[in-house]
Amino acid sequence: MLRLYEYPPSGNCYKIRLLLTQLGIPFERIYVDIVQRESRTPEFLSKNPNGRVPLLELEPGKFLPESNAVLYYLSQETPFFPTDQFEQAQVMQWMFFEQYSHEPYIATSRYWISILGKAEEYKQVLEQKQPLGYAALGVMEEQLKNSPFFVGNCYTIADICLFAYTHVADEGGFDLTRFPAILAWINRVKEQPNYLSITE
Questions:
Q1: CB atoms within 10 A of CB 120
Q2: pLDDT for 11
Q3: Where does the GST C-terminal domain start and stop, copy by copy (predicted)?
């Protein structure tokens, strides 16, 4: 059985739980408290030298880190990854966008505010992240004005990837009421078969 090393509030960990659940693949969950630096212990670092979760153990001693790499691995030859070559590239495009233009602003803000509870301590840097976070949401809004999902009018790992932190962006101080197309998309994702909430 697959083993998922995770910190449940993490959107990156949630991505994997959501896809595994929607694929109907059983897995064991192993709690790693990143706030207590459990991902930095020698034991964990022997599994992932980068010291981060999520980490998927495919078989004893065989590990795959990085949430979007795990999404890619699990989605191959499933409806969650297109067969068309251009659409495959578009999925990757949005996943790179999530890591470079979205996650550094929206996810980190949520972590400091809602997980660490240190909004005042990080006030200045949080203010700096707001314009870039809203810029990323604006890019998403424009795409979703013309398409129900991000690629090929179908629900794919691109949607799972971006949904994880977007649907809880308010926990990082972002006002999603400015983005009606994103809000409609969030509802469509929640209506997908075998949907799993981030708190489950």
A1: 9
A2: 97
A3: 84-200
What angle do helix axes 157-166 and 67-75 make, rounded to 10 degrees?
150
Tell me the C-alpha distance between 108 and 172, whole Å: 8
The pLDDT tens digits of the residues spanning 4-28 come to 999 999 999 999 999 999 999 999 9
Cα–Cα distances (Å) from 148 to 62, 92, 174, 177, in that order, read: 37, 18, 22, 18
pLDDT score, position 114: 93
Note whether residue 29 is domain-resident. Answer: yes
Give me the domain span that covers residue 167: 85-191
pTM for the structure as a whole: 0.95
Overall number of domains in the chain: 2
What CATH number is associated with residue 185? 1.20.1050.10
Angle between helices 157-166 and 85-97 (to 10 degrees): 20
What's the pLDDT at 152?
Answer: 87
Length of the chain: 200
Count of C-beta atoms within a 10 Å radius of residue 80: 21
Instruction: Tokens for 182, please give them.
Output: 């994103």
